[in-house]
Design a protein that fits this description.
hydrolase activity, Hydrolase, 6 helices, 9-stranded mixed β-sheet, single chain, AB_hydrolase_fold
Length: 274
C-alpha cells in the first residue's frame, strides 16, 4: 500500500547559492512510500499543483541521500512542468535522513561522513538497484500525477551510475536520461554500467566534472566509445572548472556556473524528448 504524507510547497525556494533561478509555478510536494521486492522505499514526490498529469522524471540521489537540497532541486524541476520522484535508494538501511549531515557539508566533514556512507553505497549492488528501479518505474506508471508513457531519468554522483543502468535495464520505460558528476561509469569490471549500452534506446546526456578522480579520462573515453558503438543518441561534456559534486548547493563542491549549465542541459533534453 502506498502511504502519502502531504507537504505542499508553493513557489519552492532553492538554497541560497541557487538564488537567481527562474520563477517557478506552484508545486505540491508529498512524502510517499513505495513497495519494493525487498521492503518499502521512502521517497519524495513533487509536481505542479494544477491537478493535471505531467511527464515523469525519476531523480536518483547522490551519496549524501534524500535531504532538503535534493527536494529543492526536485521542486525546481517540477516547477518546469514535470512530476518528479526522488527515492531514498538506501531504504534498506532506514528512512531518510539516514545520516546526520551538517547543513553545509565542508571538506573537513567529508572523511567522517564517507566512513559511514561508504559501506551503505557498497551494499547497493547493481542487482538490488535494478530491482528497485523497476519498482520506482512501476509506481510512476500507476501514479495519477504522472502522464502516460515513458519517463526521464536524472542522477547525481552515484545516481548517474543508476541512471545508466536503469536506461539499459528498462529501455522500454525510459525516453531520456541524464547524469551529472557521475563516478565509475565505465570501469574495467564485469558489472560496469557502460556495458548496458547495447540495450539503451533513450537519448542520453552526461555532464562530467572536470578532473574527477572517480571518472578519469580513460573512463570518459570508454563510455563515449561504448555509447557511440551501440548507436545511442548521446552527448557527453566535461564541465571545465566544475568539481565532483558541482550541482549540490549544500556542499563545498558547489559550482554555480556548472550547476546552471546542468539545468540548461537537463531541461533542453527533457523538452526534446517529452
Amino acid at each position: 500500500m502506498t502511504v502519502i504524507r502531504p507537504v505542499t510547497r508553493t513557489g519552492s525556494r532553492p538554497t541560497p547559492p541557487q538564488r537567481g533561478s527562474p520563477a517557478m509555478t506552484a508545486v505540491q510536494g508529498t512524502a510517499v512510500d513505495i513497495p519494493t521486492e525487498d521492503g518499502t522505499a521512502d521517497a519524495y514526490l513533487v509536481h505542479p499543483a494544477d491537478g493535471a498529469a505531467h511527464p515523469a522524471v525519476l531523480l536518483f540521489m547522490d551519496a549524501f541521500g534524500l535531504r532538503p537540497q535534493l527536494r529543492s532541486m526536485a521542486d525546481r524541476l517540477a516547477g518546469e512542468g514535470y512530476t518528479v520522484l526522488v527515492p531514498n535508494v538506501f531504504y534498506r538501511h532506514g528512512r531518510a535522513p539516514l545520516f546526520d549531515l551538517p547543513d553545509f557539508i565542508d571538506p573537513g566533514a567529508r572523511p567522517e561522513i564517507f566512513e559511514r556512507i561508504g559501506p551503505v553505497i557498497q551494499s547497493l549492488t547493481n542487482e538490488r538497484a535494478m530491482r528497485d528501479a523497476g519498482a520506482y518505474l512501476g509506481w510512476l506508471a500507476r501514479s495519477p500525477a504522472a502522464a502516460d508513457g515513458p519517463v526521464a531519468l536524472t542522477g547525481y554522483c552515484m545516481g548517474a551510475r543508476l541512471v545508466l543502468l536503469t536506461a539499459g535495464t528498462y529501455p522500454e520505460r525510459v525516453a531520456a536520461a541524464a547524469g551529472f558528476h557521475g563516478g565509475r561509469l565505465a570501469t574495467d569490471t564485469p558489472d560496469s554500467p557502460h556495458l548496458v549500452a547495447g540495450t539503451i534506446t533513450a537519448e542520453l546526456y552526461f555532464g562530467h566534472a572536470d578532473q574527477d578522480h572517480s571518472l578519469p579520462p580513460e573512463q570518459i573515453e570508454r563510455l563515449e566509445e561504448a555509447l557511440t558503438s551501440a548507436g545511442v543518441r548521446h552527448r557527453c561534456e566535461v564541465y571545465a572548472g566544475a568539481p565532483h559534486g558541482y550541482t549540490q548547493a549544500d556542499t563545498a563542491a558547489y559550482h554555480e556556473e556548472g550547476a546552471e549549465r546542468h539545468w540548461s542541459a537537463l531541461l533542453d533534453l527533457l523538452k526534446r524528448t517529452f
